[in-house]
Design brief:
Elements (H helix, E strand, L loop, with lengths): L1 H14 L19 H19 L5 E12 L15 E9 L6 H5 L4 E10 L7 E13 L4 E12 L18 E17 L2 E13 L10 E14 L19 E11 L9 E13 L4 E12 L1 H12 L12 E13 L2 E12 L8 E11 L3 E10 L2 E12 L1
Antiparallel strand pairs: 1-2, 1-8, 2-3, 3-4, 4-5, 5-6, 6-7, 7-8, 9-10, 9-16, 10-11, 11-12, 12-13, 13-14, 14-15, 15-16
Helix pairs in contact: 1-2
């Protein structure tokens, strides 16, 4: 079974010492073990897995140590940027060959999962471990690969009022995380073994589920190996592309979650969002949206009360309405049953000033049948996240 391979492969990875086969500047502090033993684990698990997937001919594995820097996107985290973080990225990829129309539409991408370990080299920040689902998109005759991954990360040393009050970047142990990789890749240089090299961006944030949430962004250079399971004799399929035309569609969505203001200790509160919008397909890939949101953000109740008492010079009345209403223009990019949504909005009803009138939303939708969908989205004001939204809706 594939899970047996994953466990065996990750176990082998966790035992060897990266510095035994990469330069010192890419050192990753893992438990020591000889390179021979690591290669034995890698070879053994690869052989076992190959026996199970010998008929599929469409899987690859990759491992890429990295060395980088935490970007100073906010001066509040300047004290946390002291060294160059190191780590590694593991990837498992299933190749596509055009059996489904969307695969042909996006130049036969891969889909799979990633594991990312990062040592920030700062004891206040600690280390992070992340699991991601990803797509690999290809360009320039499939030599340039763009990986886009979204997942969950675990921080070993988050903020604590007593024990770690200096870590104002990570307010919780579990965070959402985005991983981007842009690689020049050659899959088969020697038999099934290839190489890849490029740059990676790793973003960690809990989206104000709990304060503080200044977040971090790591820009890194990565260099690694790619191992192909199976052969390269599978041909890419092409079929006649069908034109997609649809009338205007009307959508209703309900979103919810919990979040907290930037005031540490203010408490977490639920929020509710009701959205109505129309969309129009522009072709097989995309649609435009126009609609409205009504926000019931309960954390603003506490923030209004707090400011009315603590900052009387701001002239905030404790009776100020916490609700907001916005209008937005959006775009939806369709990828199989998944789609990527991006929206830019403006509050037309805005009784309390919080982060400005302009807001944006980005996230994923998953369709269940022709009408129903679920969504996970991030709502923010420019780079300042407000909430992670979990939603359900219907497209009529």
């Amino acid at each position: 079974m594939f899970r047996h391979f994953v466990f065996g492969f990750m176990f082998g990875i966790s035992l060897f010492h990266i510095s035994s086969f990469v330069p010192h500047f890419l050192y990753v502090p893992l438990p020591s073990m000889s390179l021979r033993v690591f290669l034995f684990f890698l070879f053994f698990t690869s052989i076992c897995f190959s026996q199970e997937v010998k008929n599929t001919k469409n899987y690859t594995l990759d491992v890429s140590p990295f060395y980088g820097s935490i970007l100073l996107h906010n001066t509040d985290i300047s004290h946390l940027i002291t060294e160059h973080p190191t780590g590694f990225i593991l990837g498992f990829n299933r190749k596509t060959y055009g059996e489904k129309e969307w695969e042909q539409l996006y130049n036969y991408p891969d889909w799979g999962g990633s594991f990312v370990y990062q040592d920030t080299r700062n004891p206040t920040l600690g280390n992070t471990y992340g699991l991601y689902a990803h797509y690999n998109f290809y360009f320039l005759k499939r030599n340039l690969q763009l990986r886009i991954g979204q997942g969950i990360a675990y921080a070993t040393n988050p903020y604590d009022r007593v024990g770690n009050f200096r870590n104002n970047a990570y307010g919780s142990r579990f965070m959402s995380s985005t991983a981007l990789m842009l690689n020049y890749q050659r899959e088969r240089i020697f038999k099934n073994l290839g190489v890849q090299a490029g740059i990676s961006v790793l973003h960690y944030s809990n989206a104000n589920v709990r304060a503080p949430n200044t977040s971090t962004n790591t820009l890194a250079f990565n260099l690694g190996l790619v191992y192909s399971l199976g052969d390269e004799s599978v041909a890419y399929m092409t079929t006649e592309k069908q034109k997609v035309t649809e009338p205007f569609r009307y959508n209703l969505a309900f979103r919810s979650g919990i979040n907290e203001s930037d005031n540490i200790g203010a408490g977490q509160f639920p929020f509710y969002i009701v959205s109505a919008y129309a969309d129009k397909r522009l072709g097989r890939k995309s649609a435009l949206q126009l609609g409205t949101d009504v926000f019931f953000s309960n954390f603003l109740k506490e923030l209004i009360r707090y400011q009315s008492i603590s900052f009387p010079e701001n002239n905030v009345s404790p009776d100020t309405d916490f609700k907001r209403v916005g209008v937005f223009l959006g775009h939806e990019l369709f990828i199989s049953r998944l789609s990527v949504i991006t929206q830019l909005g403006y509050y037309v009803y805005y009784p309390f000033d919080f982060e400005g009138r302009v807001y944006n939303r980005i996230g994923l939708k998953r369709y269940f049948g022709k009408k129903w969908f679920g969504a996970i989205t991030l709502k923010s004001h420019a780079a300042a996240a407000e909430a992670v939204e979990f939603g359900v809706g219907i497209r009529l």
